[in-house]
Amino acid sequence: MGMNAARKLGAGLAFASILAATPAVAGFSVRDGKLVDACGDAFVARGVNLPHAWKPRATGKAIRESAVLGSNTVRVVLSDGTRWRRTSPGAVRRILAQARRARQVVVLEVHDTTGYGLEPKAAHIGSALAYWARLAPVLRGQESFVLVNIGNEPTAGTATPALWLEAHRTAVVALRALGLRHTLVIDAHDYGQDRSGTMRDKAAELFAADPLRNLVFDVHMYEAYGEARAVEAYLLAFEAARLPLIVGEFGPDHRGEPVDEEAIFRLSGEMGVGYLGWSWSGNAPEVADLDLVERFDGRRLTPWGKRFFDGTGGVRETSRRSRVFSGCR
Fold first, then answer.
1. Cα(50)–Cα(62) distance, integer angstroms
2. Count of domains observed in the chain
3. Are 264 and 221 within 8 A, CB to CB?
């Protein structure tokens, strides 16, 4: 961790004594390799990624409209201020209120860390830790429907498996010291795709390092998963290890390279693995076919959106809402 990031984290540790004195709130947990909600039900995420950091005014509407389309989870892009305008605690509080009203589980992620080790402007995961410290008062008591995705795709390029493991182990221990008892979501190495198998091979060691044993691992399936056998092998590895996995991002292709999205739909359904499509709307021109809806309008599904929501194994067919929003009734 860099000196500046360490100072920021140190400042945030002031929250620890307050949070440690707060009784634990029942929330998501991991049991026998599966994510379980506060009602004791296995929870399988079926939802979308929302680009809040870049299009903040569209978020509330997107939460409502994706829920109408069947989504039970939104993964929300936040910024710690390193690369984009910082998402304030007040904005996060509003996002959580909107998601609760729509009965959607929320995965919050810091996007500034994307590609650290390869992209010069990317933030070290330590910067994300300082940001989570600032958000701690907003997150406290929300464990029943909020998961914390520490940093999006936070290692790439020359970062070694040992660096991926140590960065995340440090992050997990630090967040637990802050009193955060939420399920923590861990992104894979290699821009989330884990081409090197780093997360696959180190996940058990990282899981054991969490005092709460409450981690979910997140692979992003793009061009490294152009064939069904690659999708199947990766999902089977986590099933065999009895470790929880979600496909936190995927699409029908990536920058012209094929993705076997049909295998992702089929196998995730067969194996009870959650998935979250990238992304609601507003992608750059070179990846515009990853938009699920046109111009942030939930009534105008793109070809990818129609497949994602209405196709075999898609959201409408397989999504089930958590009972936490109805008091577990």
1. 7
2. 1
3. yes
Identify the sign of the CA torsion 257, 221, 308, 272: positive
Quick check: is 127 in a domain?
Answer: yes
Q: Give me the phi and psi of 173, to 5 degrees please.
A: -65, -40
| pLDDT tens sequence across 65-84 | 999 999 999 999 999 999 99
Is residue 164 assigned to a domain? yes
Q: Which of 101, 126, 97 is nearest to 113 (CA)?
A: 126
Catalytic sites, residue numbers? 153, 249
Q: List the domain range (segments joined by +) for residue 102.
A: 3-15+43-320
As a whole number of angstroms, the distance between CA 305 and CA 321 comes to 20
Residue 70: CATH number of its domain: 3.20.20.80
Helices (H), 143-298: 161-177, 198-209, 228-241, 261-271
Which residues is 46 bridged to in the sheet? Answer: 275
Torsion of CA 259, 42, 111, 281, to 10 degrees: 60
Which tokens is 57 given?
Answer: 């005014």
Residue-wise pLDDT tens digits, 269-314: 999 999 999 999 999 999 999 999 999 999 999 999 999 999 999 9
Contacts of 85 (CB under 8 A, 6+ apart): 53, 79
Dihedral of alpha carbons 243, 250, 199, 126, sign: negative
Residue 24 lies in a domain: no
Q: Is residue 28 part of a domain?
A: no
CA distance 96 to 155: 28
C-alpha to C-alpha distance for 213 and 207, rounded to whole angstroms:
6
